[in-house]
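PROTOCOL LOG
Step 1. Enter all chains and additional molecules of the complex.
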Amino acid sequence: MLVYLGKRLVYTIPIVIGVSIVCFMLVHIAPGDPLVSVLPPDASEQLKIQMMAAYGFDRPYYEQFFKWCLRAIQGDLGTSIATGRSVTGEVLNAVRNTLLLAVVATFIGFFFGLLFGFVAGYFRNSAIDKIASILSVIGVSVPHYWLGMVLVIVFAAQLNWLPPTGAGPGGSSEWRPDWAHIRHLILPAVTMSVIPMGIVARTIRALVADILSQDFVPALRAKGLSELGIFGHVVKNAAPTALAVMGLQLGYLLGGSILIETVFSWPGTGFLLNAAIFQRDLPLLQGTILVLALFFVMLNLIVDVVQTAIDPRIQRS
Amino acid sequence: MTFVTSFLPQDPAKTAVPIEKSPGYWSGVFQRFRKDKLAIAAGVIVLLLILMAILAPLVAPMDPYAGRTIRRLRPIGTTGFPLGTDELGRDMLSRLIYGARFSLMMGVTPVIMAFGIGSLIGIVAGYVGGATNTVMMRTIDVFYAFPSVLLAVALSGALGAGIQNALVSLTVVFIPPIARVAEAVTTQVRNRDYVEAARASGANALTIIRVHVLGNVLGPIFVYATGLISVSMILASGLSFLGLGVRPPEPEWGLMLNTLRTAIYTQPYVAALPGAMIFITSISFNVLADGLRNAMDVKV
Amino acid sequence: MTQPLLTVRGLVKHFPIAGGLFGQKKVVRAVDGVDFDVIDGETLGIVGESGCGKSTTARLLMHLMPQTSGEILFDAAKVGSPDLSLSEYRRQVQMVFQDSYASLNPRLTIESSIAFGPQVHGVPQREAIERARDLLAKVGLEPSRFAGRYPHELSGGQRQRINIARALALRPRIVILDEAVSALDKSVEAQVLNLLMDLKDEFKLTYIFISHDLHVVRYMSDRVMVMYLGKVAEIGPSEAIFETPLHPYSAALTRSMPTMDPDNRTMAAPLSGDPPNPIDPPSGCRFHTRCSFAEGVCSQREPVLTAAGAFHHVACLRSEPGSGHTMAPSSAIAA
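Step 2. Run joint prediction.
Step 3. Record the structure below.
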């Protein structure tokens, strides 16, 4: 186990370096001047050169990359070109909101995904199974940004039950656990939860059906184990995979929240990315993507390690 | 010399007996697919959507670009505008029909390109193995380490809005998963005894790949890739929704959805229409891919 | 003795395996210095427990993987030398695999599978197909019924006949049969064995017959080679190996053969335990950990193959003059 942990860590290092290189290159695959958004169109050549030097854009790539990494390790992701504020601060504020949304959505999606998956897997080819299957196909095929809009239309525009956008009353971007804020969380979280729900239901259904078709199940029945006891065995066998899917889905939601955040004007990383892209604020874009991607890599690592730790069948050596 | 002669046909009449042909693999696939009513329905919808895209100029009742502010945001069922008008007074039905051109193209093209590039990478890595495999697949892993939406947004965000940049970004997003599947199935096939037997009969790598590997790996890779079209549709329209793909005034479903967001209080049904089109397309591709997977008996 | 058709000298195959966290180099000693000859027209049986290196030896003989060291001579020519290209060697030496299903491409018809080899070697397609159909008849499958079928439509025995036809399609001189009948039902196995015997006579073939089933090996082989943990324990005429085995391991193997004679029952398990780990084989004689004749010297000194009769060689310190084993003949007599 320790050897596996060590190996998995060693294997993660090149991935982290690769991800950093990709993020770093984002600024350089961008067409035009990285400073185009801050400089007035009639800026003098001299001012341009001065600014390039100030931001370090005049150095060779590898040197820029090295310096960028060195600073990133110390928690400094540079300065936003548009606002002049520290990228790290902006990203951390936004990550908190996105994380909240993604975690709540993961839990909602998981609750229903597991429910549908288990029921469908247990009663295969029944009406419940068919409904669950249809729901899970819808879950993975629906454009969630559209679903968000539909929910806004129904629950905000038509019924006026819930607020359509924002994270809190009066455009508050600081989340607090009170009813006013929870009301703002409901629609985006439910919208987001549809993504993991479909995938979890599908995975769990196949998993449960597979487990139930294995030889040890009739053996347990023959031994006189109650159905509840057998259910316990199924849960035990399905848990590692379910946990792994949960971890990965959380990662996908964190990284993929931009569309839903745009629909709901949720002040998270997606909102930040949107702003960065349209103001051509490349350091902010780079920093946000780096943080989210590294989050995803770490989550992958944790999922793998936890799965290995709790699943006796996996002997990764 | 008896050795050689014994191989020659001794009785010419014997070879004249007609050889019984087994129905091949594809006829079995077709038989299985025919029984899957849901998949056929999905296939028909996909075909209709493709026809609609190709024949848009013939089917669309009006010019999708011509708008008059005086008739903006008419409800569904307005005479002359069966699906209403958008925020600039353009005919929704015509725009939705023309939108199939952009949306299908934006959704399907990246998967086709990624299928070509990803298969090539995966098959080479899987067949050659060793250090080549390690270098290629670890590079692929770096891109796989990004959540797909994030990578697509990051790339097209950095490259800037536009159809071309969006297509490039989406292709890059779909290469890693396809390459991984291609590598996995190729490694599997490569270690089968029939590939060993082919090597033992003195065939070179290219012949073996052509005769023994491709036929056994392209099917599974293809099935996997068709499963990605649904995701690609959602992502491609999503990029346009964010303003990163197709640009106004083109009628693309994702973009239309975005521009109609302001109308959710006044014309909610009209505003939701483009998204419904994305949904129908995506779910049809999804069901079709599932049916194909079952018919081709592929486990990926 | 005539020039052997195939000569194997010092054949070694070590598989590197990833070590611990810091990647210490470890190897699996799958084949660890094997010498033997194959004489034209004979059937050489190779026996041993699973993991003893039988199949690795077969794959090395086919050049399906590079050997760590050692050489293989075919008709006195080194494979890959100007006298004998690898491609020509592969035409002369063919192999039948154990898994009859996995060794046929599921997407190719039977006749295309058989015709593939000849086509690789430049036989025009029409002729190759004709040869394939003719071979189908030779292995007892009606060409008109089987040529156009796919592997999944056939039984295991039929598929193995096709694999034999595929191997013969290149008109080889040696056919390596790697557990070729082990996966078949007993009744089918007998049919296929008899087919192999007939084909051998008809095409003047030489067989290398690898199996863990001693009865079958005895039935098929002129000579038998017993392998243990990547080394040759004993090699000699089939009769000698089965009637008067000299190596304690061969003796244990032959005693483990179930017999039909009720008066001659095996009462005790002749061999206990599993073979040791080939990553870290025992010192000296590799069998000493399971040998009832083991003495102190056995863990220190590695036995060499010693002549013990006509064409009969054994690697045991008991038979090695002056080895220090109490049962060994003195070196004076041997000299």
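Step 4. Note key features.
Chain B touches chain C through 33 residues (CB under 8 Å).
The mean pLDDT of chain B is 88.
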